[in-house]
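Q: Joint fold for the lines below.
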Amino acid sequence: MNVRTLCLSILYDSEASGYDIRRMCTEGNFAYFVEASYGSIYPALAKLEDDGLVASRTELQEGKPARKVYSITDAGRSAFAAELSEPLGEDMFRSPFLLFARFAHILPRDLVEQRCNEFLQRSQDGLKQLDGAPDEHNCTPADMWVINYGRAVLQVAEQHFRTHMHELITMARAEPQKDAAE
Amino acid sequence: MNVRTLCLSILYDSEASGYDIRRMCTEGNFAYFVEASYGSIYPALAKLEDDGLVASRTELQEGKPARKVYSITDAGRSAFAAELSEPLGEDMFRSPFLLFARFAHILPRDLVEQRCNEFLQRSQDGLKQLDGAPDEHNCTPADMWVINYGRAVLQVAEQHFRTHMHELITMARAEPQKDAAE
DNA sequence: ACTTGCATGTAAGTGGTTACATGATTGG
DNA sequence: CCAATCATGTAACCACTTACATGCAAGT
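A: Joint structure:
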């Protein structure tokens, strides 16, 4: 999923500026799929306009910089549909935490405990993000389907982790004698 | 998780050639975290050797090309542990399929059905890969912990998908009249 | 006075993939 | 005879990130 496709997917339902797109894919429920930086979004939008897949209009605002609002064209819609019709790339999951976990036994216990707590926190935050916001009025049924799938998966992930994290902590190296020689 | 760290993590428990590493991270239970190509593995190993974090020895074989077997050094072990002790990057999940699913309503039904079946198949394959192979004798407890976590998550993912995929299919655009006028 | 938010964009750098180059052996 | 497996490596290319450049307004 390149940034180009990400932009088309967001513009499919509503117009937006580069800035909007960035926010949607870092905060909104698009964070799911991709996260893109300004450095990739702005050039992608410019190229999409060159190719005639999106059109732009500059919106002046009082007290704020002008926004360049992009909207998808008919050509853009069919290009996007065509792209989705091609064979899909494989889903992928990259977990620095799980690599860390595999080596719990060579790491100090307090570090493992700390990282576990951080991970639990992030799991809970992710879940909360999916629980908040989305409702029938601002989401299509397909959107809801995706959100529910995500929710189901994140829920067990969080639950499993919560009930098994202590095992991971006990595997960790016992504290390397802190200077608590009281 | 860059390829450099991937190599160190694999070499931590046993020596291996670049070729071995490639196989382990595409087939083995390392596929979990990263997937790397030869074009990144070989240069990474060379650089690790330059830095003194791994050592190599050339193993001649009859009827097969020579293998360059790498093993981790003490410096490598501590460098790896140091890397794991730094703040972890965020886990991430990229799903071309979920993007596809969000747009089920604009896509032809038979395509959606096909992609759903493919996705189900891949889910089941992924699960089978985790169920096979790993046992106490070739895995550390931490390895088993990670595998069990993955198993728990993949299991509900597959189960949820299997019971809800038909909803997604019914959202898809009705067939654009095939020439089956029998 | 300073930071934060809004807003757009570029240039340099990074971390990878794809394709290529090479070559021997085994199995269909 | 051709394809696949084993095995190492390089070069060209790509997508994306980071950091930079700019600037104004509102809140602290």
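Q: Anything notable?
A: The two ends of chain A are 57 Å apart (CA to CA). Chain A is about 55% helix and 10% strand.
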